[in-house]
Design goal:
single chain, alpha/beta
């Protein structure tokens, strides 16, 4: 009406407009006016402008158009509403301040000749369509009305570059479907350099990339949208996202640099922990930041315990104390590490850690393992006790602690098995893959000590092969895949292995056969529920955790 236009075509670029909390008609009206000035492509950027400010950036608009746009946008402003700035792509940053101060003075005349309704102005959301005839014109009051409360709410999430990572099998000669019935499949977005790139990109079995891929897949699930009423729209533009998904250790530079301008609104953060430790490593400033919604992990200590002096994980700190004679294996591991100065998170921050990322070996490799029904029954397996794994961890302080621990473990394992008449296989170092898998399929008890993390690939591989794992400190761990439940899915031993001989002897006693076969079957059945991405994204515990996370995000954006 102000410009004398009869019709115009509007392309709503998208997700950000729909997902902004409490989108009001005045913002929609300003967007339509901006479209008239700048052509069919209009971008709504809520950042890095100060809170309460919306910036409509028109790539083709001149500075003159931008000045006129600011006046027109102000004409649609309600007295209590936020200011609206419209700038051309080439307008200098200072132009915003000039327009913001000039617009109120110029808007009065416009306001006398216009209203907050655009009347019969014709609009279309199809950028390729031509303006319709007058008789087909839709009322802007219908077009620009807030979305119904019962409909899905759009939230735009920045998905980091996956580096070509995919669930489609990289082993075509081997039967198996890593994707399962996963739909839709996450897409490798165009790389946005410098934003939250994962450091662990070694192989398709990389747990860092797997965790990110799973999170991406989970956010796209229709059943998650149905439960939350939220529709997730992926983007590779972090500046246009309501939520940025990022590796946990990348959050600090993100908050410190990318959105550093005074008064700017931070995006919400959904953080992925790509370490294999169950310790909750986090920068406290980042964790306390109101933008941080959740830190997703595959496993944690049941106490949600944080890192220890010198950057050690909790398990590394405990092993160091044991080697120095400052702790005993029968003491409570959480209390011992707390007293050693390891970080204790308050309850409100503990709630930000969410265990909802299934471990990589089961999801990706489980489809390639033989069904337990095609392996030897537990009581017929020829190897009573086995260990295969790394013993030397290098010369770093953490590595020296782990090397000393593993070497002491091997001596204790040899002592516990000596003179028992058991068939014992101990292999320090790497094994050829075929020999390794044959060993697991013929083993009754597989002992899996701690390493770089409390969790190990071998835990999953042994369970999927039908062996029962013997795990130190299993009761202090909480895992997405519940594989560390003593007496149900594993056997627990003390962290110092002082009771190893007793646990092994009891498990291999003649009267324990039924109990061990029950643990074997229970662990295998639990593990199989998470094999393939299609099955993992439907597991009730995972779905419930993600519903909670999306609920937090939705509430924060309202």
């Amino acid at each position: 009406q102000v410009l004398g236009l009869q019709a115009l075509t509007v392309r709503l670029c998208g997700p950000a407009m729909g997902s902004a909390s409490s989108v009001s008609r005045k913002w929609g009206a300003a967007l339509v006016v901006a479209a008239a000035l700048g052509g069919s492509s209009v971008f709504l950027l809520e950042r890095p402008r100060p809170p309460g400010t919306i910036m409509l950036q028109m790539p083709t608009a001149s500075d003159a158009d931008a000045s006129a746009g600011a006046v027109l946008a102000e004409a649609f402003r309600e007295p209590s509403g936020p200011s609206v700035g419209v700038l051309g792509a080439r307008a200098p940053a200072a132009e915003h301040e000039r327009l913001s101060s000039a617009a109120p003075k110029l808007a009065g005349a416009q306001r006398r000749n216009s209203s907050t309704s655009l009347g019969p102005l014709s609009t279309s959301v199809d950028p390729g369509s031509a303006p319709g005839p007058a008789g087909d014109r839709a009322s802007s009051s219908t077009l620009l009305a807030p979305r119904p409360s019962h409909g899905p709410r759009n939230i735009t999430v920045y998905m980091p570059w996956l580096g070509g990572y995919d669930c489609r099998s990289n082993r075509p000669a081997v039967p198996g479907n890593v994707c399962g019935d996963l739909a839709p499949l996450p897409k490798n977005v165009v790389r946005a350099s410098g934003f939250c790139t994962l450091v662990n990109k070694k192989s398709p079995s990389s747990y860092g990339l797997h965790s990110l891929y799973f999170a991406h897949a989970m956010l796209l699930q229709a059943h998650l949208e149905k439960k939350t009423g939220v529709h997730i729209i992926p983007t590779n533009d972090p500046t246009a996202a309501d939520v940025i998904m990022c590796r946990a250790l990348g959050a600090d530079p993100l908050l410190g640099q990318a959105f550093r301008k005074p008064g700017s609104r931070y995006p919400l953060l959904l953080l992925i922990d790509d370490r294999d430790s169950s310790t909750t490593f986090m920068n406290e400033t980042v964790l306390r930041h109101p933008a941080t919604m959740a830190v997703l992990k595959p496993s944690v200590w049941t106490s949600m315990g944080g890192s220890c002096p010198g950057g050690l994980g909790r398990h590394q700190q405990l092993l160091l104390l044991l080697s120095q004679g400052k702790a005993r294996g029968d003491e409570d591991a959480t209390s011992v590490t707390d007293m050693a100065g390891c970080h204790v998170w308050p309850k409100d921050l503990q709630n930000k850690f969410v265990v909802a990322l299934p471990q990589v070996r089961t999801v990706r490799e489980g489809v390639f393992t033989k069904p337990i029904s095609k392996t030897l029954p537990w009581h017929e397996r020829p190897v009573h006790v086995a260990f295969a794994g790394k013993v030397e961890y290098g010369e770093t302080p953490e590595g020296q602690v782990l090397s000393k621990y593993r070497q002491a473990f091997l001596k204790e394992l040899e002592r516990a098995c000596a003179g028992r008449g058991w068939n014992v296989v101990i292999h320090a170092g790497r094994m050829l893959p075929n020999k390794y898998w044959d060993l697991l399929r013929g083993t009754k008890l597989f002992v899996s000590p701690w390493g770089w993390g409390e969790w190990s690939f071998k835990d999953e591989e042994a369970i999927l092969s039908g062996a029962v794992i013997v795990k130190p400190g299993a009761s202090v761990l909480r895992s997405t895949i519940p594989m560390y439940v003593p007496g149900k899915t594993c056997l627990e031993v003390r962290v110092d292995f002082a009771d190893l001989e007793e646990v092994l002897a009891n498990a291999l006693a003649e009267g324990s056969r039924r109990r061990m076969e029950h643990i074997q079957a229970r662990a295998y059945e639990v593990q199989r529920e998470y094999v393939s991405y299609g099955r993992a994204v439907k597991q009730p515990d995972i779905v419930a955790a993600w519903v909670d996370v999306i609920g937090r995000i939705d509430e924060a954006l309202r």
